[in-house]
Design goal:
heterodimer, A: 287 residues, mainly alpha, 15 helices, B: 288 residues, MetI-like fold, 3 strands, globular
Amino acid sequence: MTDVAAGQAVSTPVAARRVRSRVGFSWIVPALYIFFLLVPIYWLLNMSFKTTNEILGTFSLWPRDFTFANYAKIVSDPVWYNGYLNSILYATLNTVIAVSAALPAAYAFSRYRFLGDKHLFFWLLTNRMAPPAIFALPFFQLYSSVGLFDTHIAVALAHCLFNIPLAVWILEGFMSGVPKEIDETAYVDGYSFQRFFFKIFIPLIAGGIGVAAFFCFMFSWVELLLAKTLTSVAARPIASVMTRTISISGYELGVLAAAGALTIIPGAIVIYFVRNYIAKGFALGRV
Amino acid sequence: MDKTVNNRAWFMVLPVLVLVAFNAVIPLMTVVNYSVQESFAGNVFFFEGSKWFEQVLHSDRFHAALGRQFLFTGIILAIEIPLGVGIALAMPRKGPWVSVCLVLMALPLLIPWNVVGAIWNIFALPSYGLLGRSINALGISFNFTRDVFDAWFTLILMDVWHWTSLVVLLAYAGLMAIPDAYYQAAKIDGASRWAVFRYIQLPKMRRVLTIAVLLRLMDSFMIYTEPFVLTGGGPGNATTLLSIDLVKIAQGQFDLGPAAAMSLIYFLMVLVMSWVFYTVMTREEART
């Protein structure tokens, strides 16, 4: 016993030294990878600050003729800025709907066994995996027939198809990490279910809710096919405005690049807030 | 965890059930309906039975798209999984750089898919893009809108750029869950770097890697927007993957039957893969 303790005491500084020496070399790999990730994004920013003439006329690694004109066009043209507002609106709506519907369901899956629970969970998962291309045409007809075509709520509801299963899945993972004894103790102490759920349980899995909300927002924000199918003018997402620009106004690369650069910002903000949970979140709470 | 048997839990699942059923069951039934009928002018229908299914299953076009889809999925899995694990192993474990790495690496995941396509389009353009211009400057002719190989090269590179971070983050989460005691024990035993990876890190990452492989497999099967914006499926049909082909068929013809039949075949393939996914996942969870 003393030998083991002594051995540990001796080995700890050695281990620390070895870890440090390994850090000395291995930072190169993530650094190179991040460089590879950032170069195309840099090129996008580079393009967005150039005039169309410079893009088509000369090849330069940084903008010689620095201009904000491309961004100014987006901020001043209602078609463009409404595209942003529409996307943010339906993604937020979708996040609220998906997470609030998924919370009780995830609790049921993590705590109870009930008739058909496994089949139901599998059926939910298949919807996360179903290619949206299959649903594009019937979605158009379905949402037209209930009079929701070209509304934000239509896109928010349609994105529930894959976001609710994902939210249930993530939340179930996080909830299963909370010992069941906590529930039982609360009931013994005379808590009603509602009071227990909102006062005790939700604070315990706040990180998981944050991660689930992040994922719902993210997948709603990045999806294009369904959002484009379900909207025409009033609720058209920014992504759809961009693809239309390519086809109508020829090739305004500068404006396109500026619009693309602006779509990165909401994601970057959201990701900053959940940075401490992100690794666990991507593992869907199952580490 | 022991679960209580309680069938009233169905009430808690009800909101989810209603919302997802509205989005999944009704459209799917519409597709089933179209797949067995022939339509004229969009409002006169005749029952056709399995005609469209036979037509799709025997069409060279479907086989070609399916083949391209498998090729694409195979290549990106072979690149992204080892690369992601390698990068996760080299990442710092603690300190201020962890957050910086995680946020920067997660960035591509949050870019709208059509913007990913647009970024790579701009980046790879033979005359205006950094990548295309650089490759051409090396004396290698590169034009992803004309040459089949170049189109595939750009497509694969784009997907690696877009999704390797997902594998990195998953593998990293698995690595962080390994207690320090394991490494100390390995050190006392004088284990080599390879032995530590093979017998400690890899088994501990099994579960997250299963999720990574299966998520990438399924998601690569439904990829649509990025290749559509990058190449539009071209040159010719060289990068027309399953989803792109399906949308082309659905939009290009007045008859919805073949598109609906193809949708269902596509959906069944995904369903089978989902089932494998679910079985593997639940078995992994039962093991731990």
